[in-house]
């Protein structure tokens, strides 16, 4: 270039556009557009070639990966980001044959694929009783009535003006692990324990709202939560829980609740079976007696061997499960493995988790990942060297009240096998000599 | 919200109680800030509360004035309920409504079949008739909840009680007698357990033993039979293919795959513009009773399409049938009317069915 020669060596070269004639600048632009087209084409090829390149070793050194030799996508290509396409197997799934219709059904969280304690909102298990409604937040209302001085109607604007709190809590369906009461029924931790999730929830303490409505502090014994969905689902919550840590929630993991998890408003009753955390919350009633609602008299009651049902059995007791290695997986060879899993208790914090690799004969205490929070999932880990022989992996949790997770035998001795709900037994994964891991129950 | 109401909210939030009490006289919404610490929201009117406060408790709280006979209940039930629950409440496709109740149960208030492990029904499980009334009123019919009158709800409740042999054929249920209905399992519930409260005492305690805790051999008592190993799909695809483990390829067990119930087979997109049949089927809960290729409660979409394909006005006929319901063509289980289904949706479904429902 001609004008380049006018600079002395060592000086910074200005951008050439500023020093070109109009014709030369246009020619430069045209050639740049041509480059952009080429680059875009290479980027597309890079994406589709990615899997191939990896599989055939063309991305490994000394070769340079196609995604290194091309320009990537611009920012905001996807306004709301999605997981990598290589993660497409990480999905909520139904358990075939469990329910008759998807509107009254459950999908399970793929615990085998998750790290840490927070469940991505899009993988939070779903349980609907009359399908998922699409609630318009501008029209949604929360009514607070019953034994209150000022029955209130609150808009979302109103609710979001109250002082807020953010807390990390698990939600576990009372029927989680319910398919396993009698025998092994499902293959992976997604189906044995996947009606379980843990999120950072943001909202208003219910006590704040009850105070605002001037509830009858002397005579109130229970509150009723009611949903705005087609089932208008109702659940009774004792007033001591309602005033302790129950929240009216609109935020989940930094954003608004997802529609399938109650958008725009849900109740959160920490530590209690998920059905009490009424989704699409439209009404709170304060009362002096329990409501004996359908979901606390026909379902969500635990059938005992003597034919009696345990009613209002809300608290999710101490429980844990190993998520890796777990059922349906294959170990790729002998040697070091990190055994990891989740522990939780509806009564408070997890104090300790022990792990056995020999079917419960001998136990070692696992490391707990901080933070260990009340009524939240706690991640545990322990080192293990697999020698290639069959192993039986188990975990058992102890909570801060001293409650120890029981074996299936101990649980069945008291509760039989037909209670459906509140199965918190120790889970066993059988690592076979071929490296395959299968769900088993020990005799 | 009117500007005066906004002013009330603002004033109340600022704690300007005097301003609130002056404004209260001038606007209907003025009670909004009445004494609450924050003054957000507004006071619900009695009419608003009546519209939403529909719960009925076993102690009589919330019981509505009204009545309905078993006979009337049968009419309503056959039209609106039998399509899912079966003519006699026997359908185990959904919660079984009737069965398992004995004369002895009615006396003792304990459903004996629960102890024996027989199928659990509304009749054997439920402890109060008010709960049955409340649930029918709030959530049924499933596809159009809160569409029945109070008297219809009494009538259907009476009929379900009759199906369970709890009341006689000539019974009329009303606000006057619903609290007196003696349910077969009225004594079948206990709250004597530790799961009611965070401070409750657990009934089963594990062991803290660390060494030699199991005497004798470790024996597997239950495992997944081979034929069931692919029943949840190929597990290789359900585990991220990274890290120290892979999902097991269970397609090798495909041969023995049991016939998993697949009600909600997805229908593909329609070739032309208009609602996607698969979306309509999901959104309008058609799949509660119909599947693509197999009979569920009603006939399959393919059967319907095949039956009417040669009829000149087939599309219009099906649209009419879908929207207004009917009975007698495919059997005595009626299809309820579908008021939520739009014309465009019904037409898309009709076209799709007549094209073979593929």
Describe this structure in words.
The complex is a heterodimer of chains A (443) and B (358). In chain A, 15% of the residues lie in helices and 28% in strands. Chain A is of the alpha+beta class and 443 residues long. In chain A, strand 13 and strand 14 form a beta hairpin. The N and C termini of chain A lie far apart (85 Å). Residues 1-19 and 33-54 of chain A have low confidence and may be disordered. With 358 residues, chain B is mainly alpha-helical. Chain B is 33% helix and 5% strand. The longest helix of chain B has 14 residues, at 150-163. Chain B is globular. The relative contact order of chain B is 0.09. Residues 1-33 and 256-272 of chain B have low confidence and may be disordered. At the A-B interface, strand 3, strand 4, helix 2, helix 5 and strand 12 of A face strand 1, helix 3, helix 9, strand 4 and strand 5 of B.
Segments of chain B where pLDDT lies below 50 for 5+ residues?
1-33, 256-272
Which strands sit side by side, in order, in the main sheet of chain B? 2-3
**SSE-based structural type of chain B:** mainly alpha
Oligomer: heterodimer
Computed over alpha carbons, the radius of gyration of chain A is: 28 Å
The largest pleated sheet of chain B is described as: 2 strands, antiparallel
Name the beta content range of chain A.
Answer: 25-35%
Percent helix range of chain B: 25-40%
How many strand elements of chain B? 6
What's the N-to-C terminus distance of chain B? Answer: 50 Å
Spatial ordering of strands, largest sheet of chain A:
4-3-12-7-8
Residues in helices of chain A, as a percent range: 10-25%
Low-confidence stretches of chain A: 1-19, 33-54
Largest interface: A-B, 131 and 106 residues
Rg of chain B: 28 Å
Number of helices of chain A: 6
Report the end-to-end length of chain A measured between terminal Cα atoms: 85 Å
């Amino acid at each position: 270039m001609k004008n380049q020669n006018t600079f002395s060596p060592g000086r910074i070269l200005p951008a050439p556009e500023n020093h070109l004639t109009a014709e030369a600048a246009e020619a430069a632009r045209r050639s740049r557009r041509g480059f952009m087209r080429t680059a875009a084409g290479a980027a597309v090829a890079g994406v589709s070639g990615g899997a191939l390149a990896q599989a055939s070793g063309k991305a490994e050194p000394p070769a340079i990966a196609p995604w290194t030799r091309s320009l990537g996508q611009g920012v905001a290509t996807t306004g709301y980001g999605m997981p990598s396409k290589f993660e497409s197997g990480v999905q909520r799934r139904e358990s075939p044959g469990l329910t008759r219709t998807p509107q009254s059904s459950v999908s399970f969280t793929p615990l085998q694929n998750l790290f840490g304690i927070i469940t991505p909102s899009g993988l939070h298990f779903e349980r609907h009783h009359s399908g998922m409604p699409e609630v318009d937040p501008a029209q949604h209302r929360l009514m607070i009535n019953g034994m209150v001085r000022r029955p209130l109607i609150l808009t979302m604007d109103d609710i979001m003006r109250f002082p807020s709190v953010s807390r990390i809590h698990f939600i576990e369906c009372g029927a989680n692990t319910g398919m396993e009461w009698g025998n092994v029924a499902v293959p992976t931790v997604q189906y044995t324990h996947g009606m379980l999730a843990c999120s950072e929830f943001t909202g208003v303490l219910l006590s704040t709202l009850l105070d605002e409505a001037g509830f009858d502090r002397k005579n109130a014994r229970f509150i009723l939560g009611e949903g705005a969905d087609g089932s208008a689902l109702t659940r009774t919550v004792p007033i001591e829980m309602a005033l302790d840590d129950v929240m009216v929630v609109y935020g989940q993991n930094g954003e608004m609740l997802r529609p399938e998890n109650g958008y725009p408003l849900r109740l959160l009753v920490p530590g209690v079976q998920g059905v009490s955390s009424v989704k699409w919350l439209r009404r709170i009633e304060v009362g002096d007696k329990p409501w004996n609602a359908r979901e606390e008299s026909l379902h969500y009651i635990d059938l005992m061997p003597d034919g009696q049902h345990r009613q209002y059995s809300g608290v999710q007791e101490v429980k844990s499960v190993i998520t890796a290695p777990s059922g349906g997986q294959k170990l790729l060879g002998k040697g070091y493995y990190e055994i990891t899993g989740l522990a939780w208790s509806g009564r408070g914090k997890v104090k300790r988790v022990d792990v056995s690799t020999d079917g419960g004969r001998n136990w070692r205490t696992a490391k707990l990942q901080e933070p260990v929070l009340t009524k939240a999932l706690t991640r545990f880990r322990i080192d293990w060297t697999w020698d290639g022989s069959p192993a039986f992996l188990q975990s058992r949790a102890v909570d801060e009240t001293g409650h120890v997770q029981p074996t299936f035998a101990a649980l069945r001795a008291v509760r039989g096998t037909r209670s459906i709900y509140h199965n918190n037994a120790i889970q066993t994964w059988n690592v076979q000599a071929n490296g395959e891991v299968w769900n088993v129950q020990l005799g | 919200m009117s500007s005066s109401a906004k002013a009330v909210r603002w004033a109340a939030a600022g704690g300007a109680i005097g301003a609130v009490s002056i404004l209260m006289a001038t606007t209907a919404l003025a009670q909004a800030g009445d004494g609450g610490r924050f003054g957000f929201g507004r006071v619900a009117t009695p009419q608003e509360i009546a519209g939403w406060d529909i719960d009925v408790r076993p102690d009589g709280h919330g019981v509505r004035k009204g009545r309905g006979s078993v006979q009337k209940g049968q009419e309503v039930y056959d039209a609106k309920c039998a399509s899912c629950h079966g003519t006699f409440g026997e359908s185990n496709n959904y919660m079984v409504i009737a069965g398992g109740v004995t004369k002895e149960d009615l006396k003792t208030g304990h459903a004996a079949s629960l102890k024996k492990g027989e199928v659990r029904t509304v009749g054997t499980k439920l402890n109060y008739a008010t709960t049955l009334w409340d649930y029918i009123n709030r959530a049924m019919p499933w596809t159009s909840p809160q569409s029945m009158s109070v008297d219809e709800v009494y009538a259907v409740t009476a009929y379900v009680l009759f199906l369970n042999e709890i009341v006689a054929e000539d019974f009329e249920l009303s606000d006057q007698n619903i609290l007196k209905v003696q349910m077969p399992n009225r004594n079948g519930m206990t709250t004597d357990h530790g799961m009611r409260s965070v401070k409750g005492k657990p009934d089963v305690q594990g062991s803290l033993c660390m060494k030699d805790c199991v005497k004798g051999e470790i024996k597997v008592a239950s495992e997944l039979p081979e034929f069931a190993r692919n029943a949840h799909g190929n597990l290789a695809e359900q585990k991220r293919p990274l890290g120290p483990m892979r999902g097991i390829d269970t397609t090798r067990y495909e041969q023995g795959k049991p016939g998993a119930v697949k009600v909600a087979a997805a229908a593909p997109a329609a070739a032309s513009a208009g609602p996607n049949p698969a979306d309509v089927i999901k959104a309008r809960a058609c799949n509660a009773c119909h599947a693509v290729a197999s009979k569920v409660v009603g006939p399959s979409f393919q059967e319907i399409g095949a039956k009417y394909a040669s009829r000149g006005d087939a599309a219009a006929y099906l649209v009419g049938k879908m929207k207004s319901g009917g009975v007698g063509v495919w059997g005595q289980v009626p299809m309820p009317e579908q008021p939520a289904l739009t014309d465009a949706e019904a037409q898309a479904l009709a076209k799709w069915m007549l094209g073979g429902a593929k």
